[in-house]
Amino acid sequence: MARVFVYGTLKKGQPNYKHMINTAKGLAKFQGTGRTVEKYPLVIAGKYNIPYMLNIPGTGHHVAGEIYSVDDQMLQFLDEFEGCPDMYQRTLMRIEVVEWEGKGGVGEARAAAEGVVECFVYSTTTYPPEWVGLPYHDSYDSSGKHGLSYILRESR
């Protein structure tokens, strides 16, 4: 099992969460909530209003999201879903645990107790330079105050 941190449309209550609970795509077990240890710019960009975490450590905010434990099948699905490695790149990042629900072995308990876990995160280094000038968010909600409605793939 791998640990994945999601900050956008794959979170609970967001437009693509249905994929996280679709066992035909693999297993994803909710472990808790967290935020990036380092600051990153989280922008909403492109004609479909997609949330992107730009891989520019030290700029932006500590981005909030959810931590999942996923099997290889789900990780492969997420790679395809996220357009990895072209649109997003899957990299390991340190995530500060805000609230832990995960149950697991000694390693899980120690990681949660220490307050920081390593997770795969889909961020991007391949973006138009003007995205750096967009407003930065500390968390994403598809129906947030930003007024930028996410366009589902099925509707594109």
From TrEMBL:
Catalytic activity reported: epsilon-(gamma-L-glutamyl)-L-lysine = 5-oxo-L-proline + L-lysine
Q: What class of enzyme is it?
A: lyase
> Could you list the residue ranges forming a coiled coil in this record?
none
Which InterPro entries does UniProt cross-reference here? AIG2-like_dom (IPR009288), GGACT (IPR039126), GGCT-like (IPR013024), GGCT-like_sf (IPR036568)
Task: Please state every residue range assigned to the domain named Gamma-glutamylcyclotransferase AIG2-like.
Answer: 4-103
Q: Which CDD domains match?
A: GGCT_like
Record EC number: 4.3.2.8
Instruction: List keywords of the entry alphabetically.
Output: Lyase, Transferase
Q: Identify the GO cellular component terms for this protein.
A: cytosol
The record places the active site at E82
> What is one process in the GO biological process aspect for this record?
modified amino acid catabolic process
> What function does the entry list?
Catalyzes the formation of 5-oxo-L-proline from L-gamma-glutamyl-L-epsilon-lysine.
Q: What is the protein name given in its UniProt record? A: Gamma-glutamylaminecyclotransferase
Native organism: Cathartes aura (Turkey vulture)
Q: What is the lineage of its organism?
A: Eukaryota, Metazoa, Chordata, Craniata, Vertebrata
